[in-house]
What we know:
By secondary structure, the protein is of the alpha/beta class. It is built from 16 helices and 29 strands. It is globular.
Amino acid sequence: MPITEILKKNADFYPNDVALTEINPQLEEEKHTTWREYSLIETKKGEAYKKEITWSDFNKRANRFANLLLTRGVKKGDKVAILLMNCIEWLPIYFGVLKAGALAVPLNYRYTAEEIKYCLELSDASILIFGPEFIGRVEEICGRIPKVNTLFYAGEDCPSFAESYDRLVSYCSSVAPNITLTDNDEAAIYFSSGTTGFPKAIIHNHQSLMHAAMTEQNHHSQTKDDVFLCIPPLYHTGAKMHWFGSFLVGGRAVLLKGIKPQWILKAVSDEHCTIVWLLVPWAQDILDAIDRGDVNINDYELSQWRLMHIGAQPVPPSLISRWKEHFPNHQYDTNYGLSESIGPGCVHLGVENIHKVGAIGKAGYGWEVKIVDENRNTVKQGEVGELAVKGPGVMTCYYKDEKATSEVLKDGWLFTGDMAMEDEDGFIFLVDRKKDVIITGGENLYPVQIEDFLRKNNKIKDVAVIGIPDSRLGEIAAAIVELKPDETMTEQEFDDFCLDLPRYKRPKKVIFADVPRNPTGKIEKPKLREMYGAKSVVAHENEIDK
């Protein structure tokens, strides 16, 4: 079933129920506005702390955009790029593209102008819809993207080089266009993480999107009464595919525009959120704010919050232990996935397996997994190898890149590039990215294992371990350590803490600095290697204040 049929079903069954709520807490802080509700269909848009649309509104807006695209000659299989910050218009626009039979091409809001141009050209997008935050970047390239014949602007004060989406869509029919879609029709192009250079274009069909929805709902048992708090960027598969579990059953979603601990807890409390997907840094920030006394969880209504789950990166067991101290009644889960496997869920821990925190879990609903050696033969239990996954959510291909596709796809198996091992109970533990493995004096070091150990130090907020060149050993392990606010640490104190590690695993250098992460929470190790790997790094010898 095409994913668009779920939107139609929700609009038919729950037309007047709220589908999406947008919360912009910064407006309240800056303008001291009050919470107010309005339908984007019935009320003129303006800046408000809170905006809502019903399932009927959602479906009508998607239909209107689909019909607008058809008036511009969009045909089945064409590509429409979306460059928007998280907002209440984002998902109706996305589904409008799908209803027109086109492929949605979400773009990372951190892309530079040249990266936007590259992705538009790579995807063969003919239309770009963008928001006010991107006027400068789009204007910089608009004369150099000949394949893009239409620029729609979503927002007030439309720039002269674009057309107003808000004005044009209001004249379009709210009846669904007569476009036949099948499971095998291509639905979207997502881009791989651009931390290793320019990204690859990943094609998924409607079957992939539907399987993501079914997998998520199977794992977390969403019902119509659940309320999902969505914080991560919608351009990424992670946020959207977790929302798909609620979408499948007509549950409400809250789009929170901000990541401050106070904002997250207030949104959960005031909107009665039951499910929250966090990234590791955000969970860490909430715990630190509680420990510092910046927030008092007794000031919020949190009893309905039943599930906290984390994805996008390895989760330190110490973080979950701390979380359960403050939120003992929460179910906890983690999901593993890639954009190539339609985001989270191909490997899944399960709320019943909290005793296995640290593992990414077992094969998710409808998925198969295996761990293989360099020749892609299955390794023995307990041995480290590359993780491979197989299921209905595997990408079709890398668009216009047969070589890259053939390197990772074989007989339906997606070879992830992640190094993993399976324990005696069949649980998979992520060891590291294949490209991140450090080879020092012939020994393989897996940075994630070292990072998990270092995070046990209560002065450390975040840490990344990378390999840097060494004339004798080839490369050595260096730890980039980000301390908690108002904490200090000396190099000697760091070295003393590492004495509990085997000697060969101890970082040979420590750099006290911020740890950069991308919008999905992943450590940007290529950036760190560029900063520190190509030159000699001198560890700080004196006490460093953060």
